[in-house]
Amino acid sequence: MARTALVTGASSGIGAATARQLARSGVHVLLHGRNEDRLAALATETGGTALAADLADPGSAADLADRALAITGSVDLLVNNAGLGWAGPLPELSGERLRHLVAVNLTAPLDLTRALLPAMLERDRGQIVFVSSIAGRTGVAGEAVYAAAKSGVDAFADSLRFELHSTGVTVGTVVPGVVRTEFFERRGRPYTRSTPRPVSAERVAAAVVRAAARPGDYYVPRWLRIPVALRGAAPGLYRALAARFGAES
Questions:
Q1: Would you tell me which CATH number, out of the four given (1.10.274.10, 3.20.19.10, 3.90.380.10, 3.40.50.720), belongs to the domain 4-247?
Q2: Taking the CB of residue 105, how many other CB atoms lie within 10 A of it?
Q3: How much is the pTM?
Q4: How do residues 13-61 score in pLDDT, each as one tens digit?
Q5: Where are the domains positioned within the chain?
Q6: pLDDT digits (tens, 9 = 90+) for 171-209
Q7: Active-site residue, from 146, 218, 219, 238
Q8: What 3-state class would DSSP assign to 78?
Q9: Helix (H, G, I), strand (E, B) or coil at 71
């Protein structure tokens, strides 16, 4: 069991739910987010420590790692959860917004992992969990950059898992589908489809905790493995079905 954990994107949604579940099990949680008021309230609720930062800013991930280590001395569990979406036709996405999406969804977890990994390897103990997205494994119309960034997270997690195979540091990945959070409001387009039904942030958080304890890939809900398997086994058929029934969420 981890004694300390750093959870990014903890001011709402999956991150906040994960922090609560970890705190209930006795873990001291370092709470990262941008909303200082929400972080302060969650820190009071969980007994954790609030660390406000904008991961889109250059150098912010390394600084966050330094602050976390200065407070606890070690981070046993890193939950790379912070994410940002945008929905719409690619030509309407500004270059500035594109860079912001990539920085938060891809560059930040890479930098944060790189910064905290040496201490984990020195202790020969640590857990890293990435919260990815089904968009990164199947692609989603109208969210090409978000999907690309999450696909990058998947590849990074897999490669890191191979690299750390003979060490005491483990890697887990959680792949949620549609989750009832503020994500869709913030991306600029609400979720309007009747299927798949959104799942709760608490359900995804439970998968995060499981991925820390028993490393592997966790789909939420589990049936999301089916379209991923179909895409791998019969990509032409998958793309035809996706185009026919619509991949936009």
A1: 3.40.50.720
A2: 27
A3: 0.93
A4: 999 999 999 999 999 999 999 999 999 999 999 999 999 999 999 999 9
A5: 4-247
A6: 999 999 988 877 777 777 777 676 778 899 999 999 999
A7: 146
A8: strand
A9: helix
